[in-house]
Amino acid sequence: MKSAESLKTKIITITVIILFSGLCAFYAYYTSVQAELLLAKLCDEALGPSSRQSSWKVIRDGPVLASNFADAKDLSAYLIVIKQSGGEYRAIVEMDKYGKIKKSKTIFLNGTILLKRLATLIDKQAQDKQLTDSSVLDPIVISTFNKTINTLVRLEQTKEK
Amino acid sequence: MNDSSTLISKENLSSFLSVLPFLVFADNMQKGLVFSLVFVFALSSAGLTSILLPQSIDKNNRFWLSCFAAAAASSIAASTLRLLDPLLYESCYTRIFLASITVPVLKMSVPLKNSYETEKYIEKILLALAYGLLILIFGVFREFLAYCSLSTDSTLPKIMVFPMAGEASGAFILLGLAAAFVKAVFLKNKRINP
Questions:
Q1: Residue A15 contacts B, CB cutoff 8 Å
Q2: Most B CBs within 10 Å, among A18, A19, A20, A61, to test the B interface
Q3: Beta strands, E only, A46-116
Q4: Cβ–Cβ of B61/A13 closer than 8 Å?
Q5: Per residue in B124-145, pLDDT tens?
Q6: What is the mean pLDDT of chain A?
Q7: CA separation (Å) from A76 to A41, A94, B94?
Q8: Do B157 and A27 touch (CB under 8 A)?
Q9: Is the model's pLDDT at A34 over the cut of 50?
Q10: CA distance A29 to chain B (A)
Q11: Do B166 and A60 touch (CB under 8 A)?
Q12: Is A112 helix (H, G, I), strand (E, B) or coil?
């Protein structure tokens, strides 16, 4: 009698665990879809009107948080998030198929002068300007800058394949 | 209620040390609020499950079920945060699930042996809530130190005045100073009331 009751309790417990796990998984899936839509809205608003379709995907590859490969002009857009010294820099960059930054838009910059310099370097890369000026901060931020550009180029090459 | 010796006991120290990562990760008010709410949510889920589960379930299973409830609560909290602010979620999600394996939450999952333990249990709840509040206060304090201002809007650009407060190293320095201050206060109290 007691073992039957114990078995019943075990069955109920396992059912509740499976049900809850399923609910949590479904809720996580639903929120991930909604979050991608929110992210798409945020990025599309920042980039301005374009032929881009809102199909942003979260990829979390180094400093690159999300990407959007759907564009009629063969331009890909990437959302980069860089954290340094307690500050944060978020920007959207558009790249052509040769891995060259065509446009960059800073959507959030909060932190130290190091991140500001990094933002300037990325902006200049987009404007196709020669980096004639130099700063004492360059040796500190250049590794982050190179890492970001390398990741973007790698992602662009992967997309081509 | 608690004198210095019981407050800084080994048991409380282990609880505090398990909450310590949240104090380091909460580098601004928003993150402080997120971690604090997730911690309290996981804690209350574990506590409620432990109390409300029928006595027919043996203590071991009740403990594991309460731990599962805390993990499920952390998952729900993380998903809700993702819905509200996807970018804030991206900077917090790797740490949120730590809440379900902190010592205060695990302690809350341990079922009561008898009704005499109720007072001890309430004490545990109050102490755990104090940890939640501590995470929030530490986040607020660090943001104020780093930017000399407080804001709930994360998109507002701000100038960093004291960057170290926003970094993990700054958090450890602040914690060291706070620990020294607390110890000094207790030692002074001990001298006055030996």
A1: no
A2: A20
A3: 57-61, 64-68, 76-84, 87-95, 101-110
A4: yes
A5: 888 888 999 999 999 999 989 8
A6: 81
A7: 16, 6, 28
A8: no
A9: yes
A10: 9
A11: no
A12: coil
Give the chain B residue nearest A85 (alpha carbons). B167
The answer to whether B135 and B49 are in contact (CB under 8 A) is no
pTM of the entire structure? 0.84
> Residue A29, Cβ neighbours under 10 Å: how many?
11
Alpha-helical segments (H) within A48-137: 113-126
Question: ∠ CA B150-B156-B157 to the nearest 5 degrees?
Answer: 100
pLDDT at A22: 94
Task: Answer whether B169 touches A (CB < 8 Å).
Answer: no
- Is B87–A24 a contact, with Cβ atoms under 8 angstroms apart? no
8 Å CB contact between B139 and B26: yes
Confirm or reject contact between A33 and chain B (CB < 8 A).
no
**Below-50 pLDDT ranges, chain B:** 1-2
Nearest to B162 by CA among B190, B142, B178, B177: B142
- CA A85 – CA A126 distance, rounded (Å): 24
Give me the residue from B72, B86, B167 closest to A86, CB to CB: B167
Q: What is the ipTM of this complex?
A: 0.79
> CA–CA separation, A116 vs A103, rounded Å?
17
Q: What is d(CA A122, CA B25) in angstroms, rounded to the nearest whole number?
A: 28
- What pLDDT sits at residue B5? 55
The alpha-carbon radius of gyration of chain A (Å, integer) is: 22
pLDDT tens across A69-127, in order? 766 567 788 889 998 877 888 898 888 877 788 888 888 888 778 888 888 888 888 77
Structure tokens at B175: 């914690």
Answer yes or no: do A86 and B160 touch at CB < 8 A: yes
